[in-house]
Amino acid sequence: MSAAPPDPSPRRERLWRIIFLSDTPVGRAFDVVLLWLIGLSVLTIILESVDEIRLPNVRFFNVLEWIFTVLFTVEYLARLWSVRRPLRYALSFFGVVDLISVLPAYLELFIPGTHYLMALRVLRLMRMFRVLKMAEYLGEASILLAALRASRRKITLFLTTVIGIVLVEGTVVYVLEHEANPDFANIPQAIYWAIVTITTVGYGDVAPITVPGKMMASIIMLTGFAIIAVPTGIVTSELGRAMGRPLAHRRRCNECGWEDHDTRALHCQHCGVKLDA
Amino acid sequence: MSAAPPDPSPRRERLWRIIFLSDTPVGRAFDVVLLWLIGLSVLTIILESVDEIRLPNVRFFNVLEWIFTVLFTVEYLARLWSVRRPLRYALSFFGVVDLISVLPAYLELFIPGTHYLMALRVLRLMRMFRVLKMAEYLGEASILLAALRASRRKITLFLTTVIGIVLVEGTVVYVLEHEANPDFANIPQAIYWAIVTITTVGYGDVAPITVPGKMMASIIMLTGFAIIAVPTGIVTSELGRAMGRPLAHRRRCNECGWEDHDTRALHCQHCGVKLDA
Amino acid sequence: MSAAPPDPSPRRERLWRIIFLSDTPVGRAFDVVLLWLIGLSVLTIILESVDEIRLPNVRFFNVLEWIFTVLFTVEYLARLWSVRRPLRYALSFFGVVDLISVLPAYLELFIPGTHYLMALRVLRLMRMFRVLKMAEYLGEASILLAALRASRRKITLFLTTVIGIVLVEGTVVYVLEHEANPDFANIPQAIYWAIVTITTVGYGDVAPITVPGKMMASIIMLTGFAIIAVPTGIVTSELGRAMGRPLAHRRRCNECGWEDHDTRALHCQHCGVKLDA
Amino acid sequence: MSAAPPDPSPRRERLWRIIFLSDTPVGRAFDVVLLWLIGLSVLTIILESVDEIRLPNVRFFNVLEWIFTVLFTVEYLARLWSVRRPLRYALSFFGVVDLISVLPAYLELFIPGTHYLMALRVLRLMRMFRVLKMAEYLGEASILLAALRASRRKITLFLTTVIGIVLVEGTVVYVLEHEANPDFANIPQAIYWAIVTITTVGYGDVAPITVPGKMMASIIMLTGFAIIAVPTGIVTSELGRAMGRPLAHRRRCNECGWEDHDTRALHCQHCGVKLDA
């Protein structure tokens, strides 16, 4: 939450406390209602995209959508007004998400079709984690995030490599296929195919038809086999560490310096002296 | 088994012992016969669904099916009658499964087509594990389950995230594709595509055709690469732990009976006395 | 090698030594030539299956195939004759494989098309590992096999569960789809689809078209996500153990009973006394 | 860098320093400009392959391509001239890559279509890692490579096995399908299918249609399930080790300099002296 502590003005403070925190009954109620509204508005947008559902109720959906938009706009302005450093909030992750969740409705007036982007409102549901105070979930999340953050560099490196690989593979298969196979009309298309293949998604909307093309594809798939193992290996190892850490090394014996005690240890595993909690 | 101990009435007690336990020759025979009947009835239903097989033998299959249904109904009633707390059994997992495995046959009389749900009888085969007393298998199972249970929260968290991701991705690709590509006629369809893609199933029944659509899809696939690594990482780590634990439990303190010492412990973690190697 | 030690008769002994062992120059030469013959015969069969290649050279391929068949038949008989316990060899893994690699050629005379099964000759190449004396590879292999053997039960259990799952899922989707979608004409077909889906192969030759069908499919895919993680987790954990074992626990200190020394340790990590090699 | 230290001649030395190292402002500038040129040339080639983009600007692309080709040719010759052992550079990895990145342009004059292979220039971007001095990235890379190198043998072994498996599976399914299904016209095609299946890519361009064929395919997929777990298991375990090692290396013996002690070591594994915590 990048919201700054409230300034003296009592009314703004009260509003801020209600909107940004959920430690008061009212604040909590506000958040719960908000989450429901977000969920409903997302559902509306999804249903609205289905012609069979929208066409019979165009009016209904228009009204509904504008109700949500107005409510969220008011909320957004309220947030801007009540928080002490509006700019800082506006530029914070949630600030941007809150804006994105109302903007498309107005954009729609100029660029039709964009209003579906309002479905990005779903991102606002991330507030849920804070509201529902799912401590343990956050605990788990932190482990997962720790693991992902720790693997960040490795994964960047890995993705860079993969991009290089698909670029080369795509080009080679393009050279082998493009005369016989309209699916490989150009290199970007071939790269798209290489990505679809190496990730083992394999739509089959683009597939090699010549013998050399299929041979190359086979090699790509078999090597991709080893490649797909890498990110898993990375995340698993980091995860193993992230999960291992709290357990190991937590307590250190002042007598003998022995380090590996699990959380419930009372005495040093090695020299037997009492551990200080 | 949520079945309560039998009440004094000897006949019900004997029946209960036969039906619910398999510690007596008769009880064991009962269970084995039951398992075979279940297997056969499931096979019948599967074969019956193949027109080439059913049409020539409609009568035969009808008779067979009703025989199974009657037998299982009798068995169900017998269970209800013999167990001391019928309601508790009826609401237990196996109680519900037992009901489901006969109900569709009767429902069929009102709603055609539903009787295939009787194939859910296969769930009853889970009793097998108890009957065959596959201790070691149960041992393994308990490790797997322990690992899965331990990862429960992480996986919930992960699935929630994935659902959020496919929602956002689906919407974005919908906005990019829906005008050019009838496959992306509406957001639910686009979400279905996103799920098919991120799980690397990739049927190809729905696939992007526009350039921006394919670019977005490529990004989704490459990121999905890292995402698919997470559940594997979770289960593996938990499994590593679950399998590691028995190792840790190996040493037991004769003083205080504390059991969780790693292989290198020299003193009891709890009371500090020297452990005998 | 299930071959028994040779009996006194010198000629049979010499032949046995040549055919079954590769510790003599002749024996080694025999094995190398054999491997090349096997490789070539497999290649021949594969090429022969391509009409463009066979049709112009039917005679050539017929002759070639019979040459290989005769050679391998002679070899098989030689093995039977030279080994002391022919039956034991005939029933051994390699004995069966050797038979299978010649039988189809004769079967062909009665059942056309079966002779392609001669490609199973490729299995004979497994002898390669013995011939090439790839000690280190066998080392690695033993680790892999140890890991797989250790996971055997878990994987059996896992596959049983998966089969149960696809049975249930297939049936449910069949009930949802079979009226609207000819791809789901019967349950076996639906089970085939469920397997294609849960393994993330996703050909797309069978795919749901109704809304409930797609919803169900989405759930199946997302859960399959967690499921596919299990075997990986199993193998990884076991592999980690199999690889860890030689390292850990190998040396034990007789003074203090400390167990975890790596292979090059000269002194006990804990009490510092000299370890006996 | 397989470039040898420069010989006395000052001009060649200066040039060598600029081209091969990036420790001087000029040398660094040279590398950065080079990387940009490579990136642009690759982009050009990719865009050029798109008819909609090329056809209107054939001349433009021709000119651009030749500019890049000339520049890279000059650079290549400069490298050859400035380095002390030209042959050694020419045969080094980067030497070959540098050649490949210009050759196709000239080959094109004789064999149309080949010039797209210039996209292999992307490989030259690997120099980036050296230029950008991404120490930590190289650190990560070294861990990944260490893990992959360590798994090298296991993976070779694994791929050999997989190739054997797809050969057998392909043949079996060919025998079951080839009469009914033109997709399985010959064994190579069937092997291609087996590879597409076992890697879970599953294009669906080739798929079984007969009942026995689908049964066999189902078995292949379910077993492939366990198979796909192996490489992941290998890489993960090796990665776990490779990542673990730095931890183990943490303690160093001041007596004998032995470095590999795990965190719990109290005495040097090598000389037995007490380690200072």
Automatic annotation (TrEMBL), chains A, B, C, D:
GO BP: any one term: action potential
Key words of the record: Ion channel, Ion transport, Membrane, Potassium, Potassium channel, Potassium transport, Transmembrane, Transmembrane helix, Transport, Voltage-gated channel
Lineage top rank: taxon: Bacteria
Pfam families linked: Ion_trans
Ion transport domain boundaries: 28-240
Membrane-traversing stretches: 29-47, 59-78, 155-176, 215-235
Major localization class: membrane
Entry's Gene Ontology molecular function annotations: voltage-gated potassium channel activity
InterPro entries tied to this protein: Ion_trans_dom, VG_K_chnl, Volt_channel_dom_sf
Cellular compartments annotated: Membrane
Membrane topology (UniProt): Multi-pass membrane protein
GO annotation, cellular component aspect: voltage-gated potassium channel complex
Name of the protein described by the UniProt record: Voltage-gated potassium channel
